[in-house]
Amino acid sequence: MTALILWSHALAALLFGALALWAWRSTESSLPRRPLVSALGMTALWALAVAGIGAGEIVTHIAETLRNLAWLGFMIVLHRRDGNVRPPLALGTVYGVVALVAIASLTAHFIGSTGTPDVAVQVGNALPLLRMLVAVAALVLVQALYSALNPAAGGSLRWIVVALAGLWLTDFLLFGTAYLTAQWRLEPLVLRGLAMIVVGSAFGIALQRKEEWNVRVSRTVTYQSLSLVAIGAYFAFLALATSAIATVGGSNARILQTAFVLGSTAAILTLVSNSWLRGWIKVKLAKHFFRHRYDYRAEWMRFTETLGAPEGAAPLEQRIVRAMADLMVSPAGVLLVPDGAGLCPSAQWNWDPGTLPVAADPALSTHLAATGRIIDLDMVRRDEPYSPDTHAIPQWMLDAPEAWLLVPLPHLGKLAGAILLARPPASRPLDWEDFDLLKVAGRQVASYLCEARAQEALADAQRFDEFNRRFAFILHDIKNLVSQLTLTARNAERHADKPEFRADMVATLHDSAERMNGLLARLSQHHRSRTEAPHAVELVPLVERIAAARRTQHPVTSSGARNAIALADPAALEQLLGHLVQNAIEASPPNEPVTIAISPIGADIAIDVIDQGCGMSPGFVRDKLFKPFVSSKPGGFGIGAFEARQLADAMQGRIEVVSREGQGTRFRLILKSAHAVGTAVERAA
Hints:
The protein is of the alpha+beta class. 63% of the residues lie in helices and 12% in strands. The strands form three sheets. The protein has a five-stranded antiparallel β-sheet with strand order 2-1-5-4-3. Strand 4 and strand 5 form a beta hairpin.
């Protein structure tokens, strides 16, 4: 027991010494630093004297008196500094009397230690009473100080006052016990040492605490700690019960103990597995242990994680229902979305779809859009004649016993939908925290829902844009075909009697029909630019075929290297050169030929389409030539050059343009030579 007294007071001395050093170096302006450092330092010296010399020695009593005087001085300074008004004269007199009583007790102790044995006995009987009076008076002063503190005072001041109350209360209990029992027992001295450690901890909290500092306990730690306490209590109960059974059970004690342990364990496991009991316990713990019902950080992280699940998870609408249900510990839910004039079920989570209606309900949609109110269906059922929501709630919701809560999903002044939640296992009345959380979460999921709908609308618009783009390209090709057929019909009036012309006209009609079928195929929604990968293509036969097809419209010549082979898609290359040649024909005078020339340029092949037409300005070539729907020709669509560049890019080629107004234009298509690629592959091999 003596060792416990020594160690407890030694730890208290170390703690108060550290606090004195901390207070000296602290910059906290709400505390009188010097009086506090003096009081903490004297307390450390007193505790050290108790541990090293003994509690009954005169030196220890001197240290105790100095400690008391230091704390009384700190309290009077604190009272003057942070009270609403200055302390009255009577209160100052009380401080003085308490200080005098403390000094008187020290004087009596000195007289008793130097006087006769009879005097020592009398003094020994009076000392506990005097020291108890000091503690009682100090407690009264602490209460007065606490009452006088400004309501706006920082939390550190209030913690200081609480710690002072603990210090004087410890002295009162120690000296009161000594006075009533007429002896100094060791147990109260041990408890005083431990109590001083607690008081020192309170002073440490006061020094640490700033105006906005607060201790926050994690809900997870709280639940786990309480679970451990419950488990420990259960094992303690088992130990006591089995001990009692061993005492009264006789020869059957072992069987009774085994049966009791198995039965109680089975009962505990049954209770723990009950979802209603678990929900009820969580509700009670959240209500009585925490300032707020929800751990908003954890709830919001789980909420956003459910909404933002990766691809391959449940559909977004189902994740929205689950995220809202998890907030309220609801086992199921249904998403209602606008359908015409009302709301109809769209997605469900753990809800029987057979119980849901098919038709939309316009009254509910109008009511939720107008009020934005979260509706507790249990309240509607109880107050059905008087509830303002009765006329809007469809009967199937009221008839469904599991239907519990209806949460609207507003977004930018419109109703994006609503979520119907099922009743949780442990039902409870809703309060402002529930409604605020549901409102914020409802707006969040409404934004997710509207964003998904906007993405779907954008995808539809992109499909329409793709269709329009293909239609614009095809319309341009149709214009070229119409021009070709118009020229054929005009020439037929003059040369229809010639067999050569008729054969050429039939070939032209066959070619036009095939091209029209190809255009219709490209317009189909199942056609997705079925281009071939670039491969070796002989250019001269392809160029000569294009030139021959256009000679019925305009003089076209071709020339160049006979062995030129390039990497290209034949169909795309023929379409590209067809655009360039047609543009050149339309820009040229009737008798000026269009030339298609093939020439090697290093590791590339160049195909030039040259005309002697009107030409283009540098500004038009730079800014407008390759833009869609911009044309320098009357009635032109402005699509040919744009599509030609896209086709060239798809074949990893490029188009260069040189043009002078009044002199003509040269379009040069540059493709990779298949010979150069083959040589590079051979060298690598």
